[in-house]
Write a sequence for this structure.
């Protein structure tokens, strides 16, 4: 009993200090810093049944954003911002139906509509959600600077794949589909 | 030349489209002096307009200044040349559009190219054309700075000889070629010194000094536009100086430079810090010094007012910085102004930052290619399994 009372009495200054601290001006209190955005690990798009691992890619020798090695993976362009940081992060994925029933990861990207949601899980297990703003079709050689840059101070994630008609000579589809999303 | 404008100068390099002046980069000829342009007090119902063209070829474009004919309303004008127009009118600045280039107005022009000209105004409109698209590897843009100082600054006893000294510097990181200087009123502008290695390039840290002498008969603001090129990108700077005739008034001079850091950004862009330095190349201290930047909102004063009198003295250099988040190639214009003896001096500095952008990826895999690959994998697997089975069966039979 004596020990219990002693503990209670000794704890009083601690509680007093805590209560005083909480009344301090905001700049004197310990600040809760935002958790830094981690590196992206998984991409989840429930609307089109995508739940995939994310590879990291840079540029090809001709200056294009590289693509994932595995057609069932997505790839984050790691020369740009991380998904969740300010700016326009970019993730690419393959397009094209597989005869054995296996699909490329972004076969159904064109089905996304404004308001659809997608999620990035980073290496800390944090889930960052994005909402689709719009989709645009680009010529493969078009100026795509608006895909890779934004200056509104917000966080965006843009998904890129192919669409259109396959050209045997250029070994490329005729268009590029970009789905623009905004961090929620 | 269409009616309504009077050319106030001469061209050191370039061609006047009306054929009245035809020069090239190696020849200086002709001097068409028009009406007196700027006077200290309003005494005429006219003003002057100088259009200045900058071109950014950062994505393989090859256009030059002359490829974009310029117009004030319907009057065709030349880049860097000063023209007198009736005042109290809003003019529309335009050009022959090239669909492969973007166009941005800055300086005294509004975003849509409108320009208000009040009596005795000296308005400068800067038009920047950038070839559409972005480079994968950004080229380094050039930066130059020109100062013009008349001697004397005032002719109180009346008309007299004035010597203008033009100091041109390369404040960037790459040598600048094809230097042209378009000045008004004074001819010829003679290179006195500076090209130390004689390569006709304005090398980094070189300072080229030009001079020109002219008898001035009335108060006049003289403008020079210097242009150079590096890596397909033009660098331009403008300097103006007023000489007062018939009154003991010493006019102010001001000079501003702007250096971005970095000069190039990789794909996605980033933060650029612009450092602006303002100096007073005249003889009277400047008050009410103001700095504005069309693409960088918050310009912060850093240092320079050593005696704390809030005046830009002739020995002082005031430093300002501002930051901007750039996502695409951007040319911005800073305007500095200061006052003394009832007159206002202005100067402009123009700087370009090139932002790279990658090409869109080729994520497509042809259905046939995929099936062939899959067929190979499947066939190889079947063959291997068959071979292994055969080996096992044969071994069992052998045993």
């Amino acid at each position: 009993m004596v020990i219990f009372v002693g503990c209670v009495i000794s704890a009083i200054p601690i509680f007093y200090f805590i209560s005083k601290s909480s009344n301090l001006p905001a700049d004197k209190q310990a600040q809760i810093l935002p958790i830094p955005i981690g590196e992206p690990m998984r991409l989840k798009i429930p609307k089109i049944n995508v739940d995939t691992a994310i590879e990291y890619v840079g540029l090809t020798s001709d200056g294009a954003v590289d693509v994932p090695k595995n057609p069932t993976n997505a790839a984050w362009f790691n020369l740009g911002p991380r998904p969740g940081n300010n700016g326009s992060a970019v993730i690419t994925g393959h397009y094209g139906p597989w005869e054995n029933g296996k699909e490329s990861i972004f076969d159904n990207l064109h089905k996304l509509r404004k308001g659809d949601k997608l999620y990035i899980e980073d290496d800390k297990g944090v889930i960052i959600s994005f909402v689709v703003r719009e989709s645009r079709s680009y010529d493969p050689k078009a100026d795509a600077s608006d895909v890779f840059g934004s200056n509104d101070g917000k966080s965006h994630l843009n998904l890129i794949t192919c669409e259109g008609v396959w050209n045997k000579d250029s070994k490329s589809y005729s268009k590029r589909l970009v789905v623009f999303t905004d961090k929620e | 030349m269409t009616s309504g404008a009077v050319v106030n100068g001469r061209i050191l390099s370039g061609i006047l489209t009306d054929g009245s002046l035809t020069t090239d980069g190696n020849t200086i000829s002709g001097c068409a002096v028009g009406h007196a342009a700027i006077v200290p007090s309003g005494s005429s119902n006219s003003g002057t307009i100088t259009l200045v063209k900058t071109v950014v070829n950062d994505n393989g474009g090859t256009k030059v200044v002359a490829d974009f004919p310029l117009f004030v309303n319907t009057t065709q004008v030349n880049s860097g040349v000063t023209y007198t127009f009736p005042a109290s009118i809003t003019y529309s600045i335009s050009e022959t559009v090239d669909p492969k280039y973007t166009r941005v107005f800055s300086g005294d022009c509004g975003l849509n190219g409108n320009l208000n000209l009040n009596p005795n105004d000296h308005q400068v409109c800067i038009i920047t054309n950038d070839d559409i698209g972005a480079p994968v590897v950004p080229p380094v843009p050039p930066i130059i700075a020109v100062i013009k100082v008349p001697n004397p600054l005032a002719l109180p006893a009346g008309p007299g000889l004035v010597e203008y000294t033009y100091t041109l510097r390369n404040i960037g990181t790459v040598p600048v070629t094809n230097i042209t200087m378009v000045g008004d009123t004074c001819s010829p502008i003679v290179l006195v010194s500076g090209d130390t290695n004689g390569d006709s390039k304005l090398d980094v840290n070189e300072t080229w000094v030009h001079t020109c002498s002219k008898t001035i008969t009335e108060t006049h603001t003289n403008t020079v536009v210097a242009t150079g090129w590096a890596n397909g990108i033009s660098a331009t700077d403008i300097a103006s100086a007023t000489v007062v005739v018939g009154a003991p008034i010493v006019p102010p001079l001001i000079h501003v430079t702007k250096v971005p850091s970095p000069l190039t950004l990789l794909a996605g862009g980033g933060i650029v810090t612009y450092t602006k330095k303002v100096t007073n190349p005249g003889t009277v201290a400047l008050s009410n010094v103001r700095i504005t930047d069309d693409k960088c909102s918050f310009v912060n004063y850093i240092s320079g007012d050593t005696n704390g009198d809030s005046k830009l003295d002739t020995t002082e250099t005031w430093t300002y910085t501002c930051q901007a988040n750039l996502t695409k190639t951007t040319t911005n214009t800073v305007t500095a102004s200061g006052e003394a003896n009832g007159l206002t001096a202005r100067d402009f500095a123009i700087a370009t930052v090139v932002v790279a952008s990658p090409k869109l990826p080729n994520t497509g895999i042809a259905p046939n290619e995929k099936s062939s690959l899959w067929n190979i994998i499947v066939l190889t697997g079947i063959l291997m399994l068959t071979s292994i089975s055969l080996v096992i069966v044969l071994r069992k039979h052998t045993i």
